Amino acid sequence: MGNKKLKIAVLGPLGTYTHEAAFQKFGQETEYDERNSIADVFRALSPEVPLGVVPQENSIFGIVIETYDILRSPTANFIRGEITLKVEHCLLVRKGVKLNQIQRVMSHEQALGQCRDFIAEKLPSASAVKTPSTAAAAKALLDSPPDCAAICSSICATLFEGLEVLFIGIQNDQSNFTRFFIVSHSQHTLLPPIIEANRQMKALILMPTPPVLVPDPNKSRGIIEHLGLLGLFATRIDRRPSLSATPFGSVYFVEVQKYSTQVVLGNDVESWTRELENSVSRVNYAGGVAILVGIW
Question: Is residue 1 part of a domain?
Fold first, then answer.
């Protein structure tokens, strides 16, 4: 990618877990383009900002709905990798604020859900306030009344002067991990060596399926038959409602992986891509819909 510094869009401000995950993967020689929402990260992707990092799923609270809702309307954007980050939530307050003063707890909805047990036990009367990100909650504390607290990373106490950590490790489960997708401007975006060298032979396939109003054995049996036509090893399936005019349709996200004990080489990636394209074509030829939205 030449000598030009790589620019990556992340959910900002600096100090979010998304920023931390991106930094873990790409390091300090990368320029991080802070965005206000997950949707803004996708909108920022361009030849000038070729990559973005967005949260995909938390091991406690489940999938990040905003990410999947954007992915269910396919664009040129393409998933090119993943990052897993161990998450340790902290309760931050303005310096000097005590626990019994707190009436509002601010954070991203995922963090609020991951810490609901702590909130119920220690702050049963406090109201939960959703913010675009965990770091945005910490930043908002600076201009909020002293009865507010934020759930975020401890790094925010060093990034935003005037804040301090009141509690550490307040998540429901200490085994708390979040997986992030690395998304590119297009399928043909040139990737940095750190991604090319860590191929996992995975893919994500989008499969919209209309509701079955009246079962008809002479027509396609829907998602089960289409999964069989794919002929690939599915490691997970997620569902979101479709955006079609007919209510209660589904959009399935099928994550697949190629089994291999060998070191992944360039020609292996090419053959994996061909295998995926052939599988998607079989479903489409049979009257279904399958769209390849990521290979990594």
Answer: no
The answer to whether residues 231 and 283 touch, using CB atoms and an 8 Å cutoff, is no
- Pairing status of strand 78-86 against strand 177-184: antiparallel
* 247: containing domain: 202-295
Domains: count for the chain: 3
Query: Which residue matches tokens 């220690």?
Result: 122
Q: What is the pLDDT along the chain (296 residues), one digit of tens a residue?
A: 556 899 999 998 999 999 999 999 999 899 999 999 999 999 999 999 999 999 999 998 899 999 999 999 888 899 999 999 999 999 999 999 999 999 999 999 999 999 999 999 999 999 999 999 999 999 999 999 999 999 999 999 999 999 999 999 999 998 999 999 999 999 999 999 999 888 899 999 999 998 876 666 666 568 888 999 999 999 999 999 998 888 899 999 999 999 765 555 556 889 999 999 999 999 999 989 999 999 99
CATH assignment at residue 100: 3.40.190.10
**What's the maximum distance between 2 C-alpha atoms anywhere in the chain?**
70
- pTM, entire model: 0.85
Answer whether 231's CB lies under 8 Å from 282's CB.
Answer: yes
243 and 274 in a common domain: yes
Helices (H), 97-191: 109-114, 116-122, 134-141, 156-159
Of 90, 75, 87, the closest CA to residue 19 belongs to 87
- Same domain for 180 and 146, yes or no, is no
What is the phi/psi pair of residue 69, to 5°? -70, -30
Report yes or no on 39 lying in a domain: yes
How remote is the C-alpha of 226 from its chain's centroid?
26
* Residue 21 to residues 10, 25, 100, Cα–Cα distance (Å): 9, 6, 33
